[in-house]
Amino acid sequence: MLTIDWAPNHKDSMPLYRQITEYIKNKITLGEWPIHSKLPPQRRLAHILQVNRSTLTIALDELIADGLLETRAGSGTWVANNTWSVLASTPTVNWNSYLDKGLYLPNLQIIQEINQAEFKPNMIRLGTGELSPEFFPRDMMSSILRNLPERINSLGYEEPKGLLFLRQQIRIYLRSLGIDTSVSSIMIVSGALQALQLICSSLLPKDSTILLEKPSYLFSLKLFQSMNMQFSGIPLDKEGIELTPIAFQKQHKNANLLYTIPCFHNPTSIVMSKQRRRDLIHLCQQEQLPVIEDDVYRELWLDSPPPMPLKALEREGLVLYIGSLSKSLSPGLRIGWIVGPEPVIERLADVKMQNDYGSSSLSQWTAAEWFASGLYQQHLEEVRKALRIRREAACKSLQTHFADIATWQVPTGGFYIWLSLTHPLSMQKLFNLALNEGLLIHPGSIYDYLSNRHLRLSYSYASLSELKEGLYRLSVIIKTLKT
Predict the structure, then answer these.
(1) Which intervals hold domain HTH gntR-type (predicted)?
(2) Spatial CB neighbours of 472, under 8 Å, sequence gap ≥ 6
């Protein structure tokens, strides 16, 4: 779907339909909208352009008459095959024919829409899994950056496993979590997602099966299907991932690996209990099933610290442990880490060097200073205080506006409330209606394609006033859909 970040000027002397015509012609002639590109549905396009349907129809009809666009029965409006025969004497390359042949599959359409809508002004983001800009520790960051020149002698490439000083600081931090490891078993990555990509592309054969909780954040990504990986979902209960299906799946589907988010799971916010963690490690040791522990939400506890990581419960190198600063400090730093057996880390580091030749040196030095200065722990205390206030505000709004249409559990940490609607709805329709009202939501179908009655709500991004207003307006939309 094409991206449109423009609207005609209603005060201009040029008619609105003519402005739209010229805008689309310009996009086509510059090659920004290649042949076979599909325009948004007319209702949606009229909303984006802030005009009525009749005005839009006049513009589209003129472009169709000129041969620039064409309509296909039941399929919408497209940039025509004969675009360049109308505009020029020589044909252009059909880039769309290349798009279908790339190695990576496109994101789900709804994920693409979410990614685009997040940057629209005045959008209330009720699902974004990110700290609000209000949380940005401006004064602390200024202090950190002022101290860097004394430490940095150059900003050249770092060694394959990452900046030694940063890995030393992470080693100290990991000890506080019960993970005793050496710096040679720690590797710096550009966020947790790169860690997952490197693990799958470097260590797993094609057509591997990955066990994971269902629902799960990973179901929202096409990255792993692009690498010919298959997912097999395991149910959750209040203590975390259920154990009985794991052994069955390992034996009958020949699963290669287990991926889990044991702390404040995305999207359900469930925390795996201490006993379940021990039992899971014991089971995976018996089954010889490697584990990826995604622990990026650990420090966002609001009531009490979560149990020790899975990695702290084993000494055989069974678990690859992933941590990150993206959720707790700043996603823009793009700094995360993997902890695992040295041969595995060396293999991952070699592949990472082939991909990007190392994470940003400046970001690595910045992250190291956050740990070394002690400001990271101070910042976390402030984040927890602010998140507690937002969690309370979100739960109060839910109690006021959703008590008769949904159920939920109060999260003990993280960003999310897994809202369960009392009646199933069309998630796509709800998403579109909310988006048209300036509300950006994350339907549960993103994380479990069979879900038609869940929403992942986030209290971490929208301001308190936006959170209250947005949840009220969302409840009105849901109640309207029910009737």
Answers:
(1) 14-82
(2) 397, 400, 401
Give 415-465 as a DSSP string. Answer: SEEEEEESS---HHHHHHHHHHTTEE-EEGGGTSTT-SSEEEEESSSS-HH
Quick check: helix, strand or coil at residue 234? Answer: strand
C-beta neighbour count of 132 within 10 angstroms: 20
CA atoms of 383 and 299, how far apart (whole Å): 10
On the question of pLDDT at 411 being above 70, the answer is yes
Is the bond into 160 cis (omega within 30 degrees of 0)? no
Contact between residue 234 and residue 249 where contact means Cβ atoms under 8 Å apart: yes
pLDDT digits (tens, 9 = 90+) for 277-289: 999 999 999 999 9
Q: Which residues contact 118 (CB under 8 A, 6 or more apart)?
A: 125, 128, 440
Q: Is residue 405 a contact partner of residue 91, using CB atoms and an 8 Å limit?
A: no
Task: Provide the 10 A C-beta neighbour count for residue 44.
Answer: 16
Residue with tokens 């009720």: 126
- Angle at CA 136, nearest 5°, toward 135 and 142? 145
φ/ψ bin of 76: left (φ > 0), alpha (ψ from -120 to 50), beta (otherwise): left
Dump the DSSP string for 282-343.
Answer: HHHHHHT--EEEE-TTGGGBSSSPPPPPGGGG-SSS-EEEEEESTTTT-GGG--EEEE--HH
Report d(CA 93, CA 79) in Å as an integer: 14
- Confirm if 421 and 453 have CB atoms less than 8 A apart: yes
pLDDT tens digits, residue range 109-167? Answer: 899 999 999 999 999 999 999 999 999 999 999 999 999 998 898 899 999 999 999 99
- In the chain, what are the domains? 16-102 (1.10.10.10), 124-130+378-482 (3.90.1150.10), 138-373 (3.40.640.10)
Q: Are 470 and 459 in contact (CB under 8 A)?
A: no
Instruction: In whole angstroms, give the CA distance from residue 62 to residue 25.
Output: 11
The residues, ordered by sequence, that sit 6+ positions from 248 with a Cβ below 8 Å of its Cβ are none
List Cβ neighbours of 461 (8 Å cut-off, separation of 6 or more): 125, 128, 129, 130, 131, 132, 415
Percentage of residues in the chain with pLDDT exceeding 90?
Answer: 77
What pLDDT score was predicted for residue 91? 55
For residue 189, the surrounding DSSP H or E stretch is strand 186-189
